[in-house]
Each structure stands twice: as structure tokens, then as C-alpha cells.
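Support request from a user on the community tier.

User writes: "When I paste my C-alpha cells into the form, the page sometimes reloads and wipes my input. The last time it worked, I copied everything first. Here is what I submitted, just in case something in the input itself triggers the reload:"
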């Protein structure tokens, strides 16, 4: 029997309402996590789309328990932190440097000699932090994901071997047509997360959003993000939802 789709697609007519919703969800998820486990663990993506969200999150009007928040990266480009393409660099600029979060609560992907070494060290850091036994996956409370126009998410790209990883927590990624090598969390780690939120904005994402949400045979990386026991949200602006069928675009906020 086909498993029922467990995902919530929300289309926002006004961008401010989308950010307000996302900040409210962050608050609820972090509040629940801290109440139940004492800490809140979140993995953040890079790229252009989330920059404004991170800036709004850092607004002093929003008081979050940063001392109990642990920030990880969903993926990283293999470049030094001070280069413009560094995901950590972007997240630091938009969020971290404004919020007074303790340095030990930031778990970035360090750049060592090769992406393989960086991926291995990042995996070790996650295993130590979550006190994981062999063959166990961590359960982040939240991951914020984006989608590339060809269907990649985090740094899991169509056709790349990192997508096939079933045991490791992280993978090194080498692609001929991408500017940088990368390090990424693997699909099983993403799929074990308690709350998965895709944030997808702009008309250039309308085609891929239709493919991911409406082609049930799609094997693209973003289509393979699933949740068994958690929640999976797609937060879209009007432009990204333009090509969705009426059934999906009816799910408006
Ligand atoms: C990265 C990201 C990546 C991103 C998508 C969408 O390092 O590039 O983590 O997975 O989410 O590429 O990127 P944009 O938001 O820039 O379109």
C-alpha cells in the first residue's frame, strides 16, 4: 500500500506573513525541544533564499534562548569561511554575529585538506554531540532546506553518489558542473529530523516545485525527503507556487 504523503504545503500571498509563520514555528519547535530535552538543535542551509529569514531571526525584537540552541549546517561549500560563497560566512553575517550565541553552540563544517576529511570530522562532531551509538542517526529538531532549480537540496545533487548514502551521516560531494566541492548531511539524517521545512521563493523555482510536489514518480533529491514520525513543510511564496495544480494551490495561508 502506498504510504500517505505526510507534508504540509503552505503558499503565502504576502512574504511578511511567510516570515512571521516561520519565526512562529521556530519558536514553537525550539520551545518544545527545550522543554523536553533541554536543548534545541537546528541545521541551516545556505544559498540566497534564507538570508532574509536569518536576518529577521536575528532582529532584537525576537528573543530566543540562544544559549540552549545548537546550530549545525545542512551543507557547506568547500571554501574558506571568509569567502563570499561560504554558507557559514553567510549565516554568521546574517544571524550569528547579532545574537550573542555561545561559540560552542555553533557546529560548522571546518575546511581541512580535502572535502572527505571535512565530512569525516563533521560526522565525528555530530556523533559526539548526540552521543550516538554505532549505526544510529541523530534527530535534529529542525532543518531548514532550500531547493535548487534542478532538484538538489542541501548538497545532495541528482545522480551524485552522496544521494545513495545509507549509513554515513555526512558525505563529500564533487561535481563537474558546480563551482565548489561540498560537504553535506546525508538523506537518512535529513529524513530523521523532527521538523523539516523547505523554504522556496521565486518564479525560477515554480517548475521544480511542481515536479517535486506533483510528480509522485520523481526521484530527485528534494522529492526523496520524507518523514516517518515528524512534520514536513513546504513554505512557498506565490511566485514559486505558480505552476501548481488547483489542489495544491488551494492550500493557501
Ligand atoms: C547551498 C544550499 C543549497 C540551497 C539551494 C537553493 O549551499 O547552495 O544549501 O542546497 O538551499 O541551492 O539555493 P538558493 O536559495 O540560492 O536558490
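"...and here is what came back when it finally went through:"
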Amino acid at each position: 500500500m502506498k504510504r500517505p504523503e505526510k507534508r504540509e504545503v503552505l503558499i503565502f500571498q504576502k512574504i511578511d506573513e511567510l516570515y512571521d509563520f516561520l519565526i512562529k514555528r521556530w519558536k514553537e519547535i525550539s520551545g518544545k525541544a527545550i522543554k523536553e530535552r533541554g536543548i534545541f538543535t537546528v541545521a541551516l542551509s545556505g544559498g540566497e533564499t534564507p538570508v532574509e529569514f536569518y536576518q529577521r531571526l536575528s532582529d532584537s525584537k525576537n528573543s530566543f534562548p540562544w544559549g540552549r540552541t545548537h546550530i549545525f549546517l545542512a551543507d557547506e561549500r568547500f571554501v574558506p569561511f571568509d569567502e563570499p560563497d561560504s554558507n557559514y560566512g553567510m549565516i554568521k553575517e546574517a544571524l550569528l554575529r547579532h545574537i550573542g550565541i555561545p561559540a560552542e553552540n555553533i557546529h560548522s563544517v571546518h575546511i581541512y585538506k580535502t572535502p572527505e576529511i571535512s565530512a569525516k570530522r563533521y560526522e565525528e562532531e555530530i556523533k559526539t554531540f548526540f552521543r550516538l551509538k554505532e549505526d544510529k542517526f541523530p534527530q535534529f529538531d529542525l532543518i531548514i532546506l532550500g531547493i535548487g532549480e534542478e532538484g538538489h537540496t542541501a548538497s545532495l545533487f541528482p545522480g551524485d553518489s552522496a544521494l545513495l548514502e545509507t549509513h554515513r551521516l555526512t558525505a563529500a560531494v564533487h561535481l563537474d558542473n558546480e563551482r565548489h566541492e561540498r560537504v553535506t548531511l546525508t538523506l537518512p539524517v535529513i529524513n530523521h529530523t523532527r521538523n523539516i521545512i523547505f523554504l522556496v521563493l521565486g518564479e525560477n523555482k515554480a517548475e521544480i516545485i511542481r515536479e517535486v510536489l506533483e510528480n509522485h514518480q520523481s526521484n530527485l533529491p528534494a522529492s526523496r525527503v520524507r518523514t516517518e514520525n515528524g512534520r514536513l513543510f513546504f513554505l512557498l511564496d506565490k511566485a514559486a507556487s505558480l505552476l501548481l495544480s488547483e489542489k495544491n494551490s488551494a492550500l493557501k495561508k
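Agent notes: The reload is a front-end session timeout and is unrelated to the input. The longest helix spans residues 15-37. Strands lie at 8-12, 40-44, 69-73, 75-77, 106-107, 142-145, 170-173, 182-185, 195-200, 231-237. Escalated to web team.
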